[in-house]
Amino acid sequence: MISKLENDKILIKADSLGAELKKLVLKKNNKDYLWHGDSKYWGRSAPVLFPFVGRLKADKYVYNNQEYKMTQHGFARDKEFELIDQGENHLTFSLTEDKASLKKYPFKFRLEIKYKIKGNSLAVSYKVRNCDQKKMFFSIGAHPAFYWPLNKNENKEDYYLEFNKTETASRYLLESGLLNNQKEKLIEKSKKLELKADTFKDDALVFKDIKSEKIILKSRKSEAKVEMEFEGFPYLGIWSQSAAAPFICIEPWHGIADSVDSSGKLEEKEGIMSLEAGNNFESTYVIKID
């Protein structure tokens, strides 16, 4: 089921399947900034990554001496959520465990995804509640894809990413979706990360040490831009499927893929978070389009 929110500046649509954002339209130019999803390149638009971010080593993990299988980025993106609240400027979707999820992830939980619009901004909020009687381990992250370039008369090379703080940062390299314990210096005392069509030829750019809380996708040829604020998120991924794919994903994460030498034990997983029984975790990122 598709639900809609709009004000005088923007319009959004979200699908109850995966609680996934499907449209983000700036009304003044009637432009959709969100990638529409095309299986030729990548069939999703903005999936929610839960209860894991990235790939697990051998697509499995061990908890309480039992082995569980889990596909990349978890199962929430393929689950039907319930729309539990809708107001003039907000939508809230909810997901809880079921028999199928408990076979993959042995925790009772409640996950809420809230979309709230204000002016030309969209706030996306996560709320995770541990509904179990034991400590719960999880990760959660965002994966929104934006058109790149944003205008038909522009090229990918006309764009760059601008951080709100001067950065010296390395990308952590991936091998078949797993961190391979190598890194490559990518930014040296700069606020800019230049973009090229082949920037992602070796998979996503994965950052662990970004100081900034804001990143902007900017064009040198137009005023079009996408700004994302992600305060409190310890990891950041930037990705596109191929040199020909007309989108770029900007992905703030609470969690990260396994490394090639991960133990497989859930409690030892890098970036994994824990919640005591009955406790909540909350986090928000904000997208602003212009």
Describe the structure.
- The structure is a single chain.
- With 290 residues, the chain is mainly β.
- The chain has one domain (2-289): Beta-galactosidase, Chain A, domain 5 (Distorted Sandwich), CATH 2.70.98.
- 2% of the residues lie in helices and 50% in strands.
- The chain contains one helix and 23 strands.
- It has one helix at residues 99-104, and strands at residues 2-6, 10-15, 20-26, 31-32, 48-49, 60-63, 66-69, 82-86, 90-96, 109-118, 121-130, 136-138, 140-142, 145-147, 159-175, 178-194, 205-207, 214-219, 225-229, 235-239, 247-254, 273-275, 280-289.
- The strands form five sheets. A nine-stranded antiparallel β-sheet has the order 8-9-10-11-23-19-18-15-16, with no helix packed on it. Strands 5, 13, 14, 17, 20 and 21 form a six-stranded antiparallel β-sheet that branches. It has a four-stranded antiparallel β-sheet with strand order 1-2-3-4, with no helix packed on it.
- The longest helix is centred in the middle third of the chain and has 6 residues, at 99-104.
- The protein is globular and about 55 Å long.
- It starts with a strand and ends with a strand.
- 36% of the residues are buried.
- The model has no long low-confidence stretch (mean pLDDT 97).
- This is Galactose mutarotase.
- GO terms for molecular function: carbohydrate binding; isomerase activity.
- It comes from Halanaerobium congolense.
- InterPro entries: Aldose_1/G6P_1-epimerase, Gal_mutarotase_sf_dom, GH-type_carb-bd, LacX.
- It holds the Pfam family Aldose_epim.
